[in-house]
């Protein structure tokens, strides 16, 4: 039995259509048919009923499907563990991080952690903040770094940092808060936590302000540098650009600037996660 036959069977069982299976796997339909025939011969059982162009799982096919998924999962996990062993890793830590954190706080913390724990393989998955708790709950990650406090049960959440939010404008701009907000479009929705309330307050003071939805924080910063607008962003995420004068901070006058929080999320304690958190707690207060 070859693993590629089992993979083909799983996809074919999902679609019950060899044409769609061939498109999914970038194989010809004759190759799909051959894989299934070889698997059936190996198992000495019929997995599909064929009626013209229609195929349906037999009772044996239905019974074998969960075992097939276990076989492929064990194979892939085993290869992953073996590859980690070849690279000298002894343990693994999977972190689900919000993109805003991955592009600002995480590099410094991760650099120290890797230096102090070279035998731990680190996998970083970039996930939207509102999806991170589910990743932790379902076991897809060991540790989450989020900008939103989760509402999920059975996960543990801790606020580790609160960041002030500042109004940033193009580097060659001038003017106070009112002049800035009336001259430029305000780029919104680049952070999941504070925009609903903030935009209401902005419009209560400056009702004719124009907005532009830009969902990615890094794109927002590049747009501001190019003079396309302004935005309210967490200070740690624009600290470098402000220091190098690629962005300009506009002092707040009427708008009460919000804060942006960073949360850690986990389900169970592991040595790897706790080792990372120790580095995180020690480094987080040096970033402001």
From TrEMBL:
<dbReference type="InterPro" id="IPR036390">
    <property type="entry name" value="WH_DNA-bd_sf"/>
</dbReference>
<keyword id="KW-0805">Transcription regulation</keyword>
<dbReference type="InterPro" id="IPR000847">
    <property type="entry name" value="LysR_HTH_N"/>
</dbReference>
<keyword id="KW-0804">Transcription</keyword>
<feature type="domain" description="HTH lysR-type">
    <location>
        <begin position="1"/>
        <end position="58"/>
    </location>
</feature>
<dbReference type="Pfam" id="PF03466">
    <property type="entry name" value="LysR_substrate"/>
</dbReference>
<keyword id="KW-0238">DNA-binding</keyword>
<comment type="similarity">
    <text>Belongs to the LysR transcriptional regulatory family.</text>
</comment>
<dbReference type="InterPro" id="IPR036388">
    <property type="entry name" value="WH-like_DNA-bd_sf"/>
</dbReference>
<dbReference type="InterPro" id="IPR005119">
    <property type="entry name" value="LysR_subst-bd"/>
</dbReference>
<dbReference type="Pfam" id="PF00126">
    <property type="entry name" value="HTH_1"/>
</dbReference>
<protein>
    <submittedName>
        <fullName>LysR family transcriptional repressor of citA</fullName>
    </submittedName>
</protein>
């Amino acid at each position: 039995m070859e693993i590629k036959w089992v993979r083909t069977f799983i996809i074919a069982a999902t679609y019950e259509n060899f044409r769609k299976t061939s498109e999914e796997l970038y194989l010809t339909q004759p190759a799909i048919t051959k894989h299934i025939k070889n698997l059936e011969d190996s198992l000495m059982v019929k997995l599909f009923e064929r009626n013209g162009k229609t195929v349906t799982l037999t009772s044996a096919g239905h019974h074998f499907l969960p075992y097939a998924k276990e076989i492929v999962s064990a194979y892939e996990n085993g290869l992953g563990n073996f590859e980690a062993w070849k690279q000298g890793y002894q343990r693994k830590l999977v972190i689900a991080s919000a993109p805003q954190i991955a592009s600002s706080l995480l590099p410094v913390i991760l650099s120290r952690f890797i230096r102090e724990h070279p035998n731990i393989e680190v996998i970083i998955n970039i996930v939207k903040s509102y999806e991170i708790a589910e990743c932790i709950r379902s076991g897809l990650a060991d540790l989450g770094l989020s900008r939103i406090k989760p509402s999920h049960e059975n996960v543990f959440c801790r606020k580790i940092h609160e960041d002030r939010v500042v109004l940033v404008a193009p580097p060659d701009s001038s003017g106070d808060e009112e002049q800035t907000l009336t001259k430029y479009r305000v780029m919104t929705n680049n952070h999941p936590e504070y925009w609903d309330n903030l935009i209401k307050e902005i419009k209560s003071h400056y009702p004719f302000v124009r907005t532009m939805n830009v969902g990615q924080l890094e794109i927002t910063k590049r747009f501001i540098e190019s003079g396309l607008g302004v935005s309210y962003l967490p200070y740690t995420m624009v600290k470098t650009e402000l220091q190098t004068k690629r962005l300009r901070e506009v002092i707040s006058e009427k708008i009460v600037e919000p804060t942006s929080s960073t949360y850690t999320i986990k389900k169970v304690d592991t040595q790897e996660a706790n080792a990372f958190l120790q580095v995180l707690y020690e480094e987080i207060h040096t970033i402001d």
